[in-house]
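In the design runs reported in the main text, the only information available to the sequence generator was the tokenized backbone. The following block is the verbatim input for one such run; it is reproduced so that readers can re-run the procedure and compare outputs position by position.
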């Protein structure tokens, strides 16, 4: 855990942003996989972790905006728990580590909430994203399950997003630890990307590196020669010379901070000319947009800069045509770069996405576009110091999408459809780093992971 004053300060800052009422943070419970005691990996709720720090199931956090009192509700282990799971510090001891003095058993929470609600006090909750939260909140707040979402507090969402968006030095330190593990994962996978190995050999090995480093992966490993499928979780193919592996993977630290890195490399260790040409375009988009990222500029502008670099590069190769700015304005680049440049990262790999993507990534000044491609941009708002964002441009050749657009002659003034036949088996390339927005600009977090053509080939050859 971080020093206990960090948690106290966070709760006090949150309170200061709220008008009145009680802020209720249910922690996550264990989640059964195929029967009750055979559970998925336990993952605490990120907002609970942020304000109350305890990384264990069975806890509820309570902040009283009006009285300034914080509480943690949870049950001490009984002898049956101790026999099967070992002992753990008492609720009082755990709560003291995050500067909370007032504790109680879970059954006391229901009574405390009833008293608060009966006296007309507002109980603020964040959007529940697990079925069991809905059932629990329904019982606790005495509302039907179908009406629990009506209780969600926009005021609380906005306050939590404001606080969690700017990372402090402790959080940056954790993210950098997660990046050290990601570095090992990616260089290991690169060195294994040779014919004869299967995608699953690489995926399984790097997941093991994350586990052996103390945390799980921060999201299911994306690793495939079919990199044109953005989130490809199927790893069954044997690696074939001449194809490209896209590996998008990261680790989570024991304190649940994420890393999220993508590298793309040729099976066998040497880029062919076609791969190198596309790779250099994506690399330029990655480097130039990172260099341009700074407080005051919107992430939408940075995304569109990546789009222009990719469109310009594809025009130079003869795959696109016409005026680059007009092509990007019309959304023609999205045939090749259909996703957003990145997203916030922190305790969640898509940080705070459970609170609502538009609260996190957009505001009154920057609204989400409806245009194909741009609509997938998870964050368009102005960058601020302390934000950690991923920077992940990509270029893909998605045969199904090309066929639809070509059939419709869509934006044919900007796309040389006939030239795309030579790329049908290309797959895709994505290059991703994690970037901290600083007061004066930005910096790539973590120890550099091989990224240029020369660095990747040297790593694979070593
Ligand atoms: N790295 C996976 C994602 O951003 O969705």
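Verbatim output:
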């Amino acid at each position: 855990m971080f020093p206990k004053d960090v948690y106290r300060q966070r709760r006090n800052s949150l309170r200061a942003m709220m008008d009145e009422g009680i802020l209720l943070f249910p922690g996550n419970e264990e989640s059964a996989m195929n029967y009750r005691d055979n559970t998925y990996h336990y993952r605490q709720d990120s907002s609970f972790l942020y304000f109350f720090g305890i990384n264990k199931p069975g806890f509820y956090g309570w902040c009283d905006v009006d009285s300034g009192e914080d509480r943690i509700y949870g049950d001490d282990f009984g002898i049956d728990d101790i026999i099967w799971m070992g002992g753990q510090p008492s609720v009082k001891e755990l709560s003291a580590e995050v500067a909370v003095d007032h504790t109680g058993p879970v059954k006391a929470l229901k009574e405390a909430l009833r008293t608060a609600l009966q006296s007309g006090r507002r109980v603020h909750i964040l959007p529940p994203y697990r079925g069991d939260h809905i059932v629990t909140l329904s019982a606790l707040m005495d509302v039907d399950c179908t009406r629990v979402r009506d209780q969600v507090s926009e005021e609380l969402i906005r306050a939590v997003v404001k606080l969690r968006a700017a990372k402090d030095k402790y959080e940056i330190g954790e993210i950098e630890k997660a990046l050290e593990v990601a570095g090992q994962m990616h260089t290991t996978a690169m060195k294994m990307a040779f014919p004869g190995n299967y995608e699953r050999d690489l995926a399984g090995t790097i997941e093991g590196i994350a586990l052996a480093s103390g945390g799980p992966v921060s999201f299911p490993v994306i690793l495939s020669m079919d990199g044109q499928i953005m989130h490809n979780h199927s790893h069954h193919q044997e690696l074939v010379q001449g194809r490209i592996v896209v590996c998008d993977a990261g680790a989570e630290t024991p304190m649940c901070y994420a890393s999220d890195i993508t590298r793309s490399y040729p099976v066998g260790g040497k880029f062919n000319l076609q791969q190198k040409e596309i790779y250099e375009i994506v690399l330029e988009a990655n480097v130039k947009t990172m260099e341009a990222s700074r407080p005051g500029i919107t992430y939408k502008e940075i995304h569109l800069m990546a789009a222009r670099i990719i469109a310009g590069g594809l025009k130079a190769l003869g795959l696109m045509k016409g005026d680059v700015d007009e092509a990007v304005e019309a959304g023609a680049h999205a045939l090749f770069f259909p996703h957003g440049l990145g997203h916030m990262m922190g305790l969640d790999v898509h940080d705070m996405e459970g609170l609502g993507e538009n609260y996190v990534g957009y505001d009154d000044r920057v609204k989400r576009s409806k245009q194909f491609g741009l609509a997938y941009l998870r964050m368009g708002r102005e960058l601020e110091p302390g934000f950690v964002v991923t920077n992940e441009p990509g270029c893909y050749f998605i045969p199904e999408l090309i066929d639809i657009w070509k059939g419709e002659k869509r934006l044919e003034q900007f796309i040389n459809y006939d030239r795309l036949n030579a790329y049908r088996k290309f797959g895709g390339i994505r290059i991703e780093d994690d970037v901290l927005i600083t007061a004066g600009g930005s910096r790539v977090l973590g120890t550099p992971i091989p990224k240029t053509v020369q660095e990747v080939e040297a790593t694979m050859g070593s």
